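Continuing from the previous page...

OK, I double-checked the sequence for tRNA 5-hydroxyuridine methyltransferase against my notes and this is the correct one:
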Amino acid sequence: MEISDAYIQSFIPKRDELLIEMEQFAAENYIPIMQLSAIENLLQLLRIQQPKSILEVGSAIGYSAIRMAQAVPNVDIVTIERDEARIEYAKAFIGRSDVKENITLIEGDALEVDIASKYPSFDAVFIDAAKGQYQKFFDQYSPLVKQGGILYIDNMYMHGLSDLDMKDVPKRKRTMIRNLHQFAEWIIQNEQYQSTFFPVGDGLLICIKR
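Thanks. Re-ran it with the corrected sequence; updated structure tokens here:
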């Protein structure tokens, strides 16, 4: 039996005015942010983990960074974004938030910026960027995760595309979905991590570093 959307929504706490404004802005401007059901699960997992430091790959407009900083007291968040327009939106929204002192925005391509020289380790990494590059992001940033730390990876379901036969996936999406499948198979078999898929939102993968 499927759970109704209304029932799921009943468990989502009210957000402050800034977050609601950001959600509306993202919807109106077709900027992807985490679905509410997924981010509430992510935030609860972070409350349990209580990381002191989080690296986010893919800031967009700063929505997830703000929500993570609000959920975990005194956490330090480093978030990376390459899109110039989104960087400006993120700066503005983060600057208006009550957690701006907890968030550092790094401008640039996550596969090119030098994070390790200034931030050698993190308790958690949240990957929510170019889906076809997840293996590269993981290879680059998993070494920075402390033993016992966790990588949280969003959009593994890719709006249902990951569950289709490849012939039914639009041609322009096939390489991305193929890369996502290969990454999922690789991480599940990787004995250095204990990985679990959470079927919430657009699919959340949790990888605990052994």
